[in-house]
Amino acid sequence: MAPVTVVELSNPDKVLFPEDGITKADLAGYYEWVAERMLPHVRGRPLHMQRFPDGIDGQVIQQKQAPDYFPGFVERVEVPRKAGGSVTHSLVENADTLVYLADQACVTPHAWLSRADRLDNPDQLIFDLDPPGRDLGTVRDAARALRALLGDLGLTAYLKTTGSRGYHLVVPLDRGDGFDQVRAFARKVAEELAEREPQRFTVEQRKDKRRGRLFLDTARNAYAQTAVAPYAVRGLPGAPVACPIDWGETLPGFILLPGSQIALNSPNARTSSGPYSLGSSSARDWPSPCSPENEPPYATTRSAASSRNARQRRIPAAVSRSKSILVCRQPWPKWP
What we know:
By secondary structure, this protein is α+β, with helices and mostly antiparallel strands. It has helices at residues 24-42, 95-103, 137-152, 179-196; strands at 15-17, 22-23, 47-51, 61-63, 76-80, 86-90, 106-112, 124-129, 158-161, 167-172, 201-202, 214-215, 226-228, 244-245, 254-257, 261-264. The strands form 6 sheets. Strands 4-3-7-13 form a 4-stranded antiparallel beta sheet. The protein has a 4-stranded antiparallel beta sheet with strand order 8-10-9-14. Strand 9 and strand 10 (167-172) form a beta hairpin.
């Protein structure tokens, strides 16, 4: 029998989200609960930790280096810097690591677009789509247009909310190309869409040249760049969650709430009222994780209810029903 790891929380009642009363124990319980759903998306990827040791109203620490005091069950990978030297990143290989990182006030884990065994070859391409104002309509249109354009090229695109302002449109890759080639391809796709609809979309880097148009951002497709992990909590009031969504959920019903939280306002799109957030009072005691039929084929499934108490199952409503991105991978390399 494998040894049982017990992750003890220091100061579990420390409030990390003052407006919502969400504690470190709540955050750790959420990550323990969602681990089986989240792990297939983050395993093997060097991690960037966004930490809030004094809560989200305090100082934010952006941390790449895994400290020496991290326990042995937190796996690590030494990553070469392009300018010389190296950084030792944490890897999230198990639920214990997610819980431990929550104890370190890592509210939001951000993951590389490549995996530790082939750092120079990304297995996903990302278009970062943030609204130029508060209207998500243009973002929805851009996401659909990119999906159609990529589909014409034989590529399948998936979608997730970032938990902040907009969407990430994600395209699985077979790791046959390096970051330079992938970024150049993404840029050409973005340029093509901007040429088709120059009044709405742009690839201009400078904000003063965008003139209210939506920026088709491809900058994340580079070595050592990261993206917010699926199902990660954001360090914002309400504790919104980066949530994989179905394409049907980009239809009317998507609204931008005060504070730039993204929520679904459609009864067919979720199983409960309230935004996609850990802070939603209606979502604090969901009994079980996402339905097993939506699990990635390499993920194991078990009942969270069989081994987690109610306090540890405080989860966002969205996670209880959302579909996973990158399930129908094309062609996606097998990994343990």
